């Protein structure tokens, strides 16, 4: 009897480790694909004779469809089962990657990229919701989320490196095939290591809210994508976003507990803080990753491969620090770790702006390491704040919303910081202006999140 009791906790921990590995594989394949495609855009354009507009859509349609599908993915996970939806997303992602690899035209490649975005929108919220269900103790959940978030850094570091090795030897089609074995492994392991869970109340599928929510998110993302190249399209997309968001809110207020996004979720201080800080974090972080390599390559300071290598300090520090963020949250408090991490990212961006185009880029390297430190501290705990203060029945919806904040901040950050860089004609002045803008948004997000969570609040059951 005693031996059984002693062995059971170890067996449970081993089972949880396999579950976490499966979930980490899903987040890795969803994000590594994006970083690889960015590096292969020029080669793909040469192969198809594609113009800048087509290349932009090859890169951006993933984010667009991902953003549009997030709320649907989160609700489907809650209603029909998180494991089932995660496995469906992985299967769609695998098939879409094969379509991309075999694409006979740029248009077919764009379609394949759109389908991978849909697969990612099913996988990521379901993955995050499963962590909320499996690790029901806040401390254990925070540590699991720290490891889970670290795999985004693995994808950030692995993507450019894989692309740099594969494209010269095996051609651009190989960058889509490389994720297929990892996807198959995740699919097999999910059926073996993850227990099914869902909302036992089975909320009705809210078609009207799904439509207007998707239209609002799609309009916002499209506006960010077209901000520099098509200002009229951007204005039209923003108009659609505002009108769709208003209709979405009006519909949800009437639905009460059956709403796709219950209004009560935004009364939770920790959830609001996580949304605000995540917006600031990805606005500056993703905007910087877009602008800095552009500045290096435009000035002739570094080529594409050297730019990818120069960004490694951020990814490597992120990978090292992120698994430790849960333990630090328990010791220092989640409020300190999240707001402090986003603040460190803001300081890192200022250092990058100061030293990014100097003859010696050591200052920028230090800024990148500090940005990775802040990102590693904040990313996992912010997800923990978002999903840890709602009931498990709403875990998929909460996971979808925190990813809405992430992708919205990222797409708007790329557009705004890109515009700031271009406004003075690029160069040192453009880099400095864009990094100031990014850091100010990060400081503001960290400050608001700190103030929002200054009083201890109880979990709200919705």
Automatic annotation (TrEMBL):
Primary location recorded for the protein, binned into one broad class: membrane
InterPro entries xref list = MFS, MFS_dom, MFS_trans_sf, Sugar_transporter_CS
Which CDD domains does the record match to this protein?
Answer: MFS_MMR_MDR_like (cd17321)
**Keywords on record:** Membrane, Transmembrane, Transmembrane helix
Q: Which Gene3D superfamilies match?
A: MFS general substrate transporter like domains, Multidrug resistance protein D
Q: Which GO terms describe its cellular component?
A: membrane
Q: Write out the transmembrane intervals.
A: 20-45, 57-77, 89-110, 116-135, 147-169, 175-195, 207-227, 233-251, 271-292, 304-324, 336-355, 361-388, 400-424, 430-452
- Name any one GO molecular function: transmembrane transporter activity
Tell me the membrane topology, using the record's own terms.
Multi-pass membrane protein
Name its cellular compartments: Membrane
The answer to keyword Translocase applying to this record is: no
ATP-binding in keyword set: no
Q: Which Pfam families match?
A: MFS_1 (PF07690)
- Major facilitator superfamily (MFS) profile domain: from which residue to which, for each copy? 19-457
Q: What is this protein called?
A: MFS transporter
